[in-house]
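Exercise 7. Given the encoded structure of a 342-residue chain, write a plausible sequence.
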């Protein structure tokens, strides 16, 4: 019977994981496969899901090579959501028809090979403020009722270089339109790079939305990465940044300010940017300089939302300063509105 299955959703109770029977992999007609809480080990006889269009794996256990093999043997796969319960080191994704990827597993690095149609990419496996998440997901309706997968317990310590760097990563995503990156994947993409380029070698002509989670605005390499992505995306329409407010003590404020000041003086413009969201803002000098820069760069800006990190009653002047300064910054777009969400 398994070989005739076209649509399979298997959601098992939490606890000891159930080993998926090898008969599931005999279906030549499978078009949609969703699995929860199980152990996946494709048998050596597995050839392909030759008609599979959508693959969803939630809280499953699977070896890296088995996952790579499974993906590469789904030649018509268009939509994939992955959240493995076991941490992953390096994954290569080979999926020529893939258009949507939501990757929430704990992973060091990911490499895309032969993904010419991949337009919507989410790789967010970091700890994020879930109140901030609500502000993002509420407006993100491009993919129906998609819920962003976020792993809960990633170690945010030292990060080694992954199997693809910033240039290689974006070079393999020629048509990416919506991009969501978590802190760990950002750090692995820029780890070991002596000097991050002002722009990528090939511009991201299709990129319209960038979401960066838990970025540290005091880390120089992360500031350079942010500016590189912005300046490499001439048709960018929306930027969302969740600041890494908890670890805001590390970094170099003075040098970060100098970098942002030099960008302000350069006169570069963003001709298509209409929406900006800056979340978990504490009111540091670097944050305010970034707000000032985006207001000055954005010719078509319609709305900027600034959501503050918790500021206790003992620091009322901090919140007042954010509101006062944000409303005095020069705005190149005459219709731009700046809202402060306390």
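Solution.
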């Amino acid at each position: 019977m398994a070989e005739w299955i076209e649509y399979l959703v298997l959601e098992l109770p939490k606890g000891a994981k159930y080993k998926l029977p090898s008969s599931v992999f005999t279906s030549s007609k499978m078009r949609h496969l969703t699995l929860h809480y199980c152990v996946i080990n494709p048998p050596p006889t597995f050839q392909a899901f030759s008609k599979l269009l959508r693959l969803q794996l939630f809280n499953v256990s699977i070896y890296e090579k088995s996952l790579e093999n499974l993906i590469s043997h789904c030649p018509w796969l268009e939509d994939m959501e992955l959240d493995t319960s076991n941490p992953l080191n390096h994954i290569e994704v080979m999926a020529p028809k893939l258009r949507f990827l939501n990757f929430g597993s704990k992973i060091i690095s990911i490499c895309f090979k032969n993904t010419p149609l991949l337009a919507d990419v989410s790789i967010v496996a970091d700890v994020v403020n879930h109140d901030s998440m609500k502000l993002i997901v509420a407006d993100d309706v491009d993919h129906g009722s998609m819920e962003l997968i976020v792993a809960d317990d990633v170690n945010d310590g030292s990060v080694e270089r992954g199997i693809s760097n910033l240039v290689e990563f974006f070079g393999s995503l020629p048509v990416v339109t919506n991009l969501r990156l978590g802190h760990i994947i950002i750090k692995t993409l820029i780890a070991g790079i002596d000097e991050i380029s002002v722009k990528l070698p090939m511009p991201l002509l299709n990129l319209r939305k960038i979401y960066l989670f838990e970025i540290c605005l005091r880390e120089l390499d992360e500031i350079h990465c942010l500016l590189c992505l912005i300046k490499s995306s001439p048709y960018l329409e929306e930027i969302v940044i969740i600041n890494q407010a908890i670890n805001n003590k590390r970094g170099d404020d003075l040098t970060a300010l100098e970098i942002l000041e030099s960008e302000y003086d350069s006169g570069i413009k963003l001709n298509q940017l209409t929406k900006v969201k800056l979340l978990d803002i504490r009111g540091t000098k670097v944050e305010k300089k970034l707000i000032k820069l985006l207001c000055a760069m954005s010719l078509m800006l319609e709305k900027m939302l600034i959501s503050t990190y918790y500021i206790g009653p003992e620091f009322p002047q901090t919140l007042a300063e954010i509101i006062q300064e944000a409303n005095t910054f020069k705005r190149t777009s005459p219709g731009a509105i700046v809202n402060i969400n306390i």
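Remark. Residues 129 and 280 are 8 Å apart (CA to CA). Students should compare their own answers with the one above.
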